[in-house]
Amino acid sequence: MKLARPSPWVVMAVVAVVSTMALLFLFAQGQRHSESSYLKNVTLLRHLKQLDAQWELSVLRSKIGIDSHYDPLADSLVKVSALFDEAESALRVQEHDEPDGLVSAGASLREAFAQRTTLIERFKSANALLRNSLMFLPTATEEARQAIGDQERPTPLLGRVSTDLNNLLLGSTLYSQNASREKVTEVQAILDRLAANRSLLPQGVGERLDIVSIHVATILREQAAVNGLLGDIAQVPTAARIDGISNALSAEQQGATMKVRRQREHLLALSTLLVGLLLYAALRLVRGHRMLRDSRDKLLEYGHSLEHKVADRVAALRQSEARMTQLAQYDSLTGLPNRNLFSDRLAQAMARANRDGHLMALMFVDLDHFKQINDSLGHVVGDGVLKAVAQRLRESLRDSDTIARLGGDEFTIIVEGLSEAGNAVQLAAKIREVLARPLMLDGRELVLSASVGVALHVRGSDDGDALLQAADIAMYRAKQNGRNAHAMFAPEMAVQISERANMVNLLRHALDRGEFELHYQPKLELDTGRVAGVEALLRWNSKELGPVSPARFVPLAEEMGLIVPIGDWALRTACRQGRAWQLEGLPPLTMAVNLSPRQLRDATLVDGISGTLRETGFSPRLLELELTEGVIMEDVKGNIDTLIAIRRLGASLAIDDFGTGYSSLAYLARLPIQTLKIDRAFVVSMLEDTNTMTLVSTMVTLAHSLSLKVVAEGVETAEQQRLLRQMHCDQIQGYHFSRPLAADAVAALIRQNAGSAAAVLHRSGALTLVGSA
Amino acid sequence: VSNALKPSAWSVPRGSRLTAKAALSLLLAVAATVSAAPIDEPIQPIPLTLKQDPARADIGARLFRDPRLSGNGRVSCASCHDLKKGGADGLARSPGLNGAPTSVNTPSVLNAALNFRQFWDGRADSLEAQVDQVVQNPIEMGSAWSDVVRKVSQDPAYRSAFASAYRDGVTKANIQNAIATYERTLITPNSRFDRYLRGDLGALSAVEKAGYAKFKQYGCVACHQGVTVGGNMFQKFGVMAAYFDKRGSPTADDLGRIQVTRDDRDKNVFKVPSLRNVALTAPYFHDGSAKTLEAAVDVMFRFQLGRIASNEDKEAIVTFLHTLTGELVERP
């Protein structure tokens, strides 16, 4: 089991507590060996020794006679005793390594003191007697000699006694000064002699002699005693005992000093440890502080960066908001105001115009064929075109003019401060001219055109929608006028617009109400004079509007997406009619049916054709589908698969309105087509313009060189027919031969034609056929 | 002498048990200090005062006269130590608590503090020890200390006085100390002889001065010297002649210090008594055998000095001895 590593603070606390306890222990130990108490004891002992010496000295002083009384001795005894008691109790208070030794040393010292005290007391007694007798002996001797002298009869004995007395005095005095055994013997001998003669002496002399003898004896006795006591007193080992105690204390102190030294070493070690701990703690604190500071700095830094981030985020949000606003108000592609902002600006501009009385115009610009550019060259190119248009519009207009993009290829321009209406028209022309300049995009050159509608603000009106609608109508009119044009709004245009809206409404229901019918315009084969086939043409007999021209409703149907079901119906009806004609026994006729661009883009187109053929039983080989040149060229790559699929069904393909589009010969060669139909505009102007005639001739030659059949449309005169025949145009179609006919009228014409085909062939000039209608 | 001034000799802390030795040390230190000034004589004047704790001395004064310290409440210290009778009672033997005579003559309490030992045989080192023995002595006061402490404790006045004077209140030791403290106030300075010693040469008459000279000349001063004129040494009674043989009927108490030391050499050895106020303290000697001062002087000449003095000399000495009577201080 792995133990958790303890916190450094815990370790430090434990070490600190242990160290503190050790310190306290050492401190307590140190108290027990106070040097001062040792010094005090030693001082006491030294003092005691001094007193002891003085005590001894006092004994000598008393002996010699310097001190005439014993008070100093008694005083010394008291002082020594008191000091000894003090020292003893002081030593007893302290703890010692060898208390028994000190106690016994103290006891022996006490014993020594007691011994000395006893000896001194004896000394005092003996010395007092000695002094007394020594002092009195001369007097006593003199009194004894006087007693001898007082005797009436001197005897030899008395003379000897007198001599002995002198010798006694001399001997005793000498003895007291220099005690010697010989003197004692000598004096003792005299005493003995005197004692032996005592009875022989007269009473007066004897008594005096007794007194002398007793004092001499006292001197001898007490002198010996004093001498012995002085020696004994000096030999009492008090000083040695005191020294012994001092030495014991000193040894103990040395031990204590050693101990203290060790303790000091321990203290030093502990202190070092504690200081180390302190430093470590301080270091940790400093580091902690630094970490805190760093953390704080980091926090501040982070705070700053956060502020920056927040600021950035706020800025981003503002940008985003601005972009939202931009998106809300501006077109993301071109950067022009969008419909929302345009509406505001228009309202403001109208308000200003109403207030200031200025002339204000709204232009509606729509690029011609932009959808084709977008579809054929891709959205990237389309977007590039829109950007370029926006740029050109910005460059050609004043800053004060508002240019907006409403969506798709629709641009609007608010022009304020016009001096007259004509300026608006001039401006529209200028815009068209600017936009028509060739545009280099993605490595290719494009030529654009635009239709521009202009609507003037009517003073007092604040209906922006109406003004926009007016401009839109004018633009539409410009489109109707063949595109690449501009038009000024006129009130009657509004009527047309409403008619158109009405027509759209009717058109939605026309199929259901069976208002459509097909007319068939025969095509004449110039070589044989025979009707080669017919082109099915859609007719709308509106109950409300009456017959409506295809030129009016087909673009509308195309625009509204109605052309697909209408186209289906037309194809089915044409196939059914072609099959009916076959069943009637008519010669095989090709049935040409127009396919609209939208139909071509319809993914179900091929299946639909196939189904219709199967359903009607019409021969695919007799079915010819016509497509306008523009439709095919919009998206050659996308369309070619569909065209091939149609060809695989067995149907043939024709290019309608050839010459109006941008067909390249390379594509033309690759397309799976069999027929070119020359647009009526070329045929109509062919006679007046030799260039056109050359062009038509070239087209025919070209088609033939590509193994294509050539059909000329809009042939209305014999002269045209003759020229086309000379050009070896294969077939013609137009009013000159036959206008579009109802189905039964076609059948009648075919039957008639079949009979007169040779005649027709031979007939030169125009052949006028009378229509059934 | 200078050593007497050492702090160790003086530093007797208040409230601690004052030992007799310490007190004596103090006393003698003062005496020695004072004695430095007078003319160098074997006799030294008594200090004018011995500073004592007044509260303790006051307690001691009351205890000194309190018969409750005796077993039957009949006698007090003052019964034998009458301050008006020279600190003793003038009797050869004093009656104890039951009337039985004490074994030896009552020594004077006056200047007892200046004696180097207490009792005739010097068996007590201090006044406290002396009190201890006397109170318990069956003949003298016949008390047990426990009874004494109890009796004293039961007295509210004592209790409060002890409580204020002693840290531990009424105890055996404190009672002894209080009495001893009082006794240390019982000194008698300013005797005419002391005044003479201090330089007042006119304090003594010519006869008295001659007496002092004889006192010295005859050797009395060999033992009777110092502040207390005795009281600081032991001496055998009957040095020059057998006193007890002459007196007759020897008793155990005549053996003297041998009873303390058990040393044959101390037979008939007694503390040399102080001659202070000696004129007031007849009868004399441990046996109270000398009824008068003259008789005592005669005994001394015969048995201690071994000399024969003229009547004039002896009278002169007696005259001198009268000058040793001092004035009782009895104040702390």
Written description of the protein model:
The complex is a heterodimer of chains A (773) and B (332). Chain A has 773 residues and is of the alpha/beta class. Helices cover 67% and strands 12% of the residues of chain A. Chain A is built from 25 helices and 16 strands. In chain A, the strands form three sheets. Chain A has an eight-stranded mixed β-barrel with strand order 8-9-11-12-13-14-15-16, surrounded by six helices. Chain A is rod-shaped. Chain B has helices spanning 7-10, 20-35, 54-64, 77-80, 127-136, 145-154, 156-165, 172-183, 192-197, 206-217, 243-247, 258-261, 293-305, 311-322; strands at residues 234-236, 269-271. Chain B is built from 14 helices and two strands, in the order H-H-H-H-H-H-H-H-H-H-E-H-H-E-H-H. Chain B has a two-stranded antiparallel ribbon. In chain B, helix 3 packs across helix 8 (172-183). Chain B starts with 6 loop residues before the first helix and ends in a 10-residue tail after the last helix. With 332 residues, chain B is an all-alpha fold. Chain A binds chain B through residues 44, 47, 50-51, 54, 68-75, 77-79, 81-83, 85-86, 118, 121-122, 124-125, 128-129, 131-133, 135-136, 140, 211, 214-215, 218, and chain B through 3-4, 6, 8-9, 19, 21-22, 24-25, 28-29, 31-32, 35, 40-44, 116, 125, 218-219, 221-223, 225-227, 232-236, 239-240, 261, 263, 265, 269, 305-308.
What descriptors fit this protein?
A: 773 residues; alpha/beta; eight-stranded mixed β-barrel; 16 strands; 67% helix; disordered C terminus; B: 332 residues; mainly alpha; two-stranded antiparallel ribbon; 14 helices
